[in-house]
Structures are given as structure tokens and as C-alpha cells.
Amino acid sequence: MPLQTEVTVAALAERAGRFLVVEESIGGKLVLNQPAGHLEPGETLVQAVARETREETAWRFAPQALLGVYLWQPVQGTTAFLRFAFAGTVSDHDAAQSLDAGIVRTHWLTRAELAAREAQLRTPLVLRCVDDYLSGRRLPLDAIAHLDGAAAVQSGPWNASLHRR
Questions:
Q1: Please, are residues 22 and 10 in contact by the beta-carbon 8 Å criterion?
Q2: Among 56, 70, 89, 155, which residue has the fewest nearby CB atoms (within 10 Å)?
Q3: What is the CATH code for 5-163?
Q4: pTM for the full predicted model
Q5: Any idea where the domains of the chain sit in the sequence?
């Protein structure tokens, strides 16, 4: 049976040593995570991370670099998550905007504060992304290629029907 994989995006925004995180209710438990969510049909990864950040935090996120690509499978045989994490800046906070369903509030926390709340982190990816950011990891945004399906099929020798499941 093929591995089921969900594509997600996450935003890493830092100000004066503090990182923007959301506190959200998942299954009745409060957890901390970077602003993150699923890629929607028709979106690029950069568009998705900007949208998710605005919806979850009321901040406008401007991605500046790809921080990394992370494959996480919580339990063998379960759905895996392919996370594209982006480093960037936030601006234009809209305090009147309501936050996405499940989001309780946002916080600006240091790495040490996140580590002290490790049991409350939604996934191990939260600290891993912060550590990769602090180590200076940055990839250019053009490392991500977004190919429009119709244009790719028209310009290539392949047939779109071969790619349907």
C-alpha cells in the first residue's frame, strides 16, 4: 500500500530572538506550532504559507527563503507529512481579524521558552525548524519550481492521462 502523504507549509518569523507561534486546540489539547497548514488546490507553496499565516495569526507573512523540507511520519503506517518551512518577515497585523478555527492565540516565544514547553509542541518539527533557522540555514525561494499542469503537459512529450490515479 502506498504511503499517504499530506503536503503542508509552515512560517518561521523571528523578531528580536522571539518566534511567532500559534496556540491551537487539537483534539481538546492546547498545542504550540508555527503558523502552518495544508496546500490547497491551485496554490503555490509560497501562496499557501502566506495565506495560512494570515488566517492563523492576522499577520501578513512575506517569505524570504526556504528553510527546509521535512518528512515526518508520527507512527509507522500512518499518514506522513511533507512540510515546506519558510523563513520570512511579518507586517500589517490586523488586530480586528478573527483567527482560524481552533487557533486560541498567538505568542512570540524564544527558543528556550519553546524548549521548556516541549511537551506542548504539536510536533518535533517546531523545534527542528527553529534550530535550522538559528543555524543559518536558508535556501533561495527559486529552489522551488511550480509547474502549471496544463502548460507542462502541452510543452512536454508526456500525456496527462498517464499521471492520473
A1: no
A2: 155
A3: 3.90.79.10
A4: 0.88
A5: 5-163
